[in-house]
Every structure is written in structure tokens, then in C-alpha cells.
Amino acid sequence: MATQITGYKSKAVAAAVALVNAVTTTEGDDSEDALREILRDNEFFWQQLETGDVESFREWGRTLRPFFEAEELMDAAELLNDLMLRIPMHPHISNHEPHGVHMHYAPPSSRLPDRFRAATLMKLSELVCAYGLGRTGVCAADGCDNVYADTSKAGRRRFCSEACANRTNVAAFRARKRTVDDRTA
Ligand SMILES: [Zn+2]
Ligand SMILES: [Zn+2]
């Protein structure tokens, strides 16, 4: 936890990434069970997910994808600003397990989908204000369309996972070795 630069008491950035990957990628699983698991893994009130809300979560994942694909900071900012005008926001301090005292961004009586939209939007906006687009993007591995957000201190990530980083490094190593072998042959 101490190595995280953002999202203390909030896993909203990680939740946004998981949702975008679940609903917008070729390998993604956007089933109700998978979405419930994303909510549980990221400490949202997953028990409150109703079948009627599933499509609005999928829609939100599709809405956030262009943010991760944006190449210009102001394009990303405009996208987030536009959403912040449309999503009901009413920041207030809440106190509940497992987080203790922390911010809520949606109006107090909001249901889960609105709370999720408001929280993911705010945390992505904070990340962008602090780090520009240097912490988010689409995985650099060939053939992978997952998005990622790097909230580590080092902040040098370009891949969605260790698996993609390793696969790419192995491929680069083989390519280098081939060039050397060709020269020495
Ligand atoms: Zn809360
Ligand atoms: Zn990847």
C-alpha cells in the first residue's frame, strides 16, 4: 500500500482499468459474475450489483476506454471534464469499513452504478492532474489490447501485466540474438 502514489483508501483506478479490460477487449469477460468480481476485488459494495445495472457498467467501461487511448493530455482532460459535467457529483466525507474515513464523490443517496462512475472519474482525474498521461495507456505488447494504469512509485510501466512484459522482453532478446547469430554465421 505504501508504494501506491494514488488510490489510498480507494481502488477506483484499478477498478476502472479492470472494467475497461473486461468490456472492451477481445479476451475480456463482461459477464455479470466477472463484473461482480471486479467490484469485490476493488472494495466496492459488490453485493449491491443488480442484474439491471450490468449493462450500465458495460457502457461505463466503453465510455472510459478513449481516456486510456488518448495521446494528448488535453484530449484526455476534455473527456474527463465532459463526463464530470454529466455524472452526478456531490463530494462528501464518509466513514465505513474497510476504508475508514474517506471521500465519496456521488450524492449520498446514490446507487452503486453512480457511485462507481463518480469514484472512477475522480481518481482518474487526480492521476492525470498529478502525472499527465505518463501513468496510463494501452499495453505495449504485440496483440494485446488491454489498458493499464501505473500507480507504483517508479511509474515506468508500459504493459498490462507481467506476462505481457516478459513475452515482449523474450521476443526482443530473441530478435537481438538472431541479429548477432546472423553476423557471426
Ligand atoms: Zn466508501
Ligand atoms: Zn498486455
Plain-language structure description:
The longest helix is centred in the last third of the chain and has 23 residues, at 162-184. The protein is mostly helical. The N and C termini lie far apart (51 Å). Helix 1 crosses helix 5. The strands form two sheets. Strands 1-2 form a two-stranded antiparallel ribbon. The protein has a single domain, classed as Orthogonal Bundle (Jann2411-like fold). The protein contains six helices and four strands, in the order H-H-H-H-E-E-H-E-E-H. Helices cover 52% and strands 9% of the residues. Bound molecules: zinc ion (2 copies).
Give a concise summary.
The protein is mainly alpha-helical and 185 residues long. It has helices at 12-24, 32-41, 54-69, 73-86, 112-131, 162-184, and strands spanning 92-96, 100-104, 136-138, 147-149.
Main attributes of the structure:
single chain, 185 residues, mainly alpha, Jann2411-like fold, two-stranded antiparallel sheet, 4 strands, 52% helix, 9% strand, elongated, binds zinc ion, ABATE_dom_sf, Znf_CGNR, CGNR zinc finger domain-containing protein, ABATE
